[in-house]
Specification:
Elements lengths: L6 E7 H4 L10 E9 L11 E3 L5 E3 L28 E5 L7 H12 L10 E5 L2 E5 L3 E3 L4 E4 L8 E5 L5 E7 L5 E7 L4 E2 L5 E3 L11 E6 L3 H6 L21 E11 L2 E4 L7 E2 L5 E7 L4 E2 L2 E9 L10 E8 L1 E12 L4 E5 L4 E6 L2 E3 L13 E3 L6 E3 L2 E3 L5 E3 L4 E12 L6 E2 L5 E10 L20
Parallel strand pairs: 2-33, 5-6, 6-9, 7-10, 8-11, 9-21, 10-21, 11-22, 20-23, 21-23, 22-24, 23-25, 23-26, 24-27, 25-28, 26-29, 27-30, 28-31, 29-31, 30-32, 31-33
Antiparallel strand pairs: 1-2, 3-4, 12-19, 13-18, 14-17, 15-16, 15-19, 16-17
């Protein structure tokens, strides 16, 4: 963290920073950047500051919108150390391709019973180089893939295939199954709020997982100027049906028809834009308590802009309470760690993305990318030569946090990439060679608009 006298907190309010005046819309995307200001006389922002007890106080605006509480991100919701899970199977490199032997070890541990902490055990890969010609899959809870270190003399997984593929995938399956749904009756639920009134709480109980939906309308699309994207190939205006915002939450308390949530909402819910809903869901096939650690991935390639080789080192899908720690990717085309749909409470810590190999253009070199995931933490990670280094994708709803990150020789900007990602924090993130941007990207890409 920077010293207090060198921090300034800034919050982008779309009512005042858009190219089209939004008037009373009060639509705020709660993206907070902590920016180094060498000459600042004070570190205190009017929007978030320490109180006398040391707690951060978050000042609301006239409508109640405030900077989010970001304390619930990462493994087990924050504040819980990543555990050291006991080793159950140990292997070393074999002659030729190692994919089958590593996958067999993973499957052996997956077949073990869960212990009282929700773990089955770790597969330990001894030092050496392992040739891996196809994706290694962890698709059971409580399974850890561990090496002895991510340096060149540690555990090295070499991606040898001549197609773009993920080397290690940690994944559940299926999707959320929704049930009971109720309407939100508040006229306005501000950014940062963690409670709301419903037309009924019948069928809801404390502990239920819910999606809080902020309904999008044609009028909202018009008011934020996203009906103006046009006139270039592959660019289209935003349509309301594609921009409903679902925020994954847990009911922690019920008082009358008011429900209280474990984390705040990231975009205001307004009756004049059709309001919102809360719907209960289950996701029984999402896995938990799995991770990858102390491993280096190196991708073979033929030429400097080769695109037919290892693409992602570690990918998370439909998983919660998971992690990647001390993993290093070298020469991969897209990402060191990618967190995709259905991923929650997941941490990437002490990871590095080095020397990516791909064409320097869209859809490449997103070193640490969060796409349709929530409560995720990217901490103390490093990247070089990447395009969008610490990045959120379309409609990704937080809270999500990037903290203590560094990018060197950046080919493009870090930050939210496109289409109304909300509730993300960049804290002490340095982008050397480019910038950290929160902006209306307009027609960039296929019509990224408000990032």
């Amino acid at each position: 963290m920077w010293p207090p006298d060198k921090l300034e907190m800034m919050c982008c309010n779309f009512r005042s920073c858009g190219r089209r005046q939004l008037g009373n819309a009060a639509v705020i995307v709660s993206l907070l950047i902590l920016v180094h200001v060498a000459s600042a006389a004070t570190n205190l922002s009017v929007w978030a500051f320490p109180g006398s007890s040391g707690r951060i106080l978050r000042q609301p605006d006239a409508l109640g919108n405030r900077v989010l509480d970001y304390t619930s991100v990462g493994y087990q919701g924050g504040g819980v150390p990543i555990p050291d899970v006991p080793v159950k199977v140990t292997i070393s490199p074999v002659a030729g391709d190692d994919t089958a032997s590593i996958q067999a070890a993973i499957n052996t541990v997956k077949a073990l019973p869960l212990d009282t902490n929700g773990f089955r055990g770790a597969v330990l890969l001894n030092a050496g180089e392992y040739q891996v010609g196809s994706t290694l899959t962890i698709n059971g809870s409580g399974v850890i893939l561990r090496g002895v270190g991510s340096e060149t003399n540690g555990t090295v997984l070499r991606a040898t295939a001549t197609n773009a593929y993920t080397l290690i995938q940690v994944t559940g399956s299926g999707s959320a199954s929704s049930s009971t749904t109720h309407n939100i009756t508040d006229y306005y639920v501000p950014v940062g709020a963690s409670s709301m009134v419903l037309d009924s709480v019948s069928g809801f109980a404390v502990g239920d997982r819910v999606f809080v939906r902020r309904i999008a309308t044609d009028q909202w699309i018009t008011d934020i100027g996203m009906d103006q994207l046009c006139c270039e190939p592959d660019v289209s205006i935003w349509t309301a049906s594609g921009y409903h915002i679902d925020m994954d939450r847990l009911i922690t308390r019920i008082e009358g028809n008011r429900i209280f949530l474990n984390a705040p909402i990231t975009t205001a819910i307004e009756a004049r834009y059709a309001g919102g809903t809360v719907r209960k869901y289950t996701w029984t096939s999402r896995i938990t308590n799995s991770g990858v650690e102390h491993i280096r991935g190196v991708s073979d390639f033929v030429v400097a802009d080769d695109e037919n080789h290892g693409w992602v080192l570690v990918q998370f899908n439909s998983v919660e309470n998971a992690w990647a720690r001390d993993v290093t990717s070298q020469y991969f085309g897209y990402a060191c760690v990618a967190m995709y749909g259905g991923t929650r409470f997941t941490t990437a810590r002490d990871c590095r993305s080095l020397d990516p190999v791909s064409i320097i253009t869209g859809g490449r070199r997103y070193a640490f990318v969060l796409d349709d995931c929530t409560y995720c933490l990217v901490q103390n990670c490093y990247t070089d030569e990447d395009r969008h280094q610490f990045v959120t994708q379309s409609l990704t709803t937080g809270p999500n946090v990037f903290v203590d990150g560094q990018s060197d020789t950046a080919k493009s900007d870090a930050g939210p990439h496109h289409r109304w990602a909300s509730g993300a924090l960049w804290d002490n993130v340095a982008v050397n060679g480019n910038a950290l941007d929160i902006q209306n990207r307009g027609n960039l890409g296929s019509g990224h608009g408000w990032s």
